[in-house]
Amino acid sequence: MVILDLNCDLGEGCGQDEALMPLISSANIACGGHAGDHASMVETVALALHHGVAIGAHPGYRDPAHFGRRELRMDSPTLKREIQQQIEALREVAEAQGAQLHHVKAHGALYNQSAREPEYAQALIEAVLAVEPRLKLYALAGSPLVAHARQADLEVVEEVFADRRYRPDGALVPRVCADALIEQADQAIAQVRQMVLRRQVVASDGSLVPIQADTLCLHGDGAQALPFAQNIREWMQHQRVELRAP
């Protein structure tokens, strides 16, 4: 049987968390950088516990005006400290409710920069190791970050996206491009089917790119997040794909 984790970025104030949480197996919870505060972390952790969903920290640039999606330049010690503080903030909230962190997934521009730039990858890796070496790192499938993290003895979960298009090099099409997002449910399901069952994805130029799909991401702030999640769960049940956090 094929096993797949379905993760979603939550605790970002987008109003869909209660509807999405029962449909997923792991949650990436904003921890005060691009979005979220202590109250939202408490609420989202409690919701994840109620539904048996794995709890992950979702650190991002402290740039809420741009929702953490604007690339910033930071020196490695400063970046490591910022990421570590955000992870520790969520860990404290989780432990207060008797829960443990399961994973870390960077947000937005930090996610993309750490996937391709060694110094950002290293800062992220060092921050995770400083908090808890057992934490899993969710990383863009096939990216250099995957290899860097494994060399540091972190357990890596390779992530793919239902609602984003890919470039021929396996990177995500930047959001500034008109065709970056998949907004039709049938197109999202087609991409999921190909990634999960065939281990490949159709890139923006029509080429087929090999891809490892350990976890599938939905963005909780997307207008189609809820119907996409519902359709993907229906597809998984039909294909006998088991939903399970790694």
Low-confidence stretches: none
Structural class: alpha/beta
The count of domains is 1
What is the residue-averaged pLDDT?
95
Shape: globular
Count of strand segments: 10
Query: Which strand-content bin applies to the residues?
Result: 15-25%
Q: Under the CATH scheme, which architecture would be assigned?
A: Alpha-Beta Barrel
Helix content: 40-55%
**CATH homology-level superfamily:** Glycoside hydrolase/deacetylase
Named CATH topology: TIM Barrel
H/E series: EHEHEHEHHEHEHEEEHE
CA(first)-CA(last) distance? 15 Å
What's the CATH C level? Alpha Beta
Instruction: Give the spatial strand order of the biggest sheet.
Output: 1-2-3-4-5-6-9
Keywords:
UPF0271 protein; 246 residues; two-stranded antiparallel sheet; Glyco_hydro/deAcase_b/a-brl; 18% strand; alpha/beta; 7-stranded parallel barrel; TIM Barrel; single chain
If you had to describe this structure to a student in words, what would you say it looks like?
Helices cover 40% and strands 18% of the residues. By secondary structure, the chain is α/β, with parallel strands linked by helices. It has helices at residues 17-20, 38-51, 76-96, 108-116, 118-131, 144-151, 185-198, 225-239; strands spanning 3-10, 26-30, 54-58, 103-104, 136-140, 155-161, 200-202, 208-210, 215-219, 242-243. Strand 7 and strand 8 form a beta hairpin. The two termini are 15 Å apart. The protein has a single domain (3-243), classed as Glycoside hydrolase/deacetylase (TIM Barrel). The strands form two sheets. A seven-stranded parallel beta barrel has the order 1-2-3-4-5-6-9, surrounded by six helices. Strands 7-8 form a two-stranded antiparallel sheet. The longest helix is centred in the middle third of the chain and has 21 residues, at 76-96. InterPro entries: Glyco_hydro/deAcase_b/a-brl (IPR011330), LamB/YcsF/PxpA-like (IPR005501). It comes from Ferrimonas marina. This is UPF0271 protein. Pfam families: LamB_YcsF.
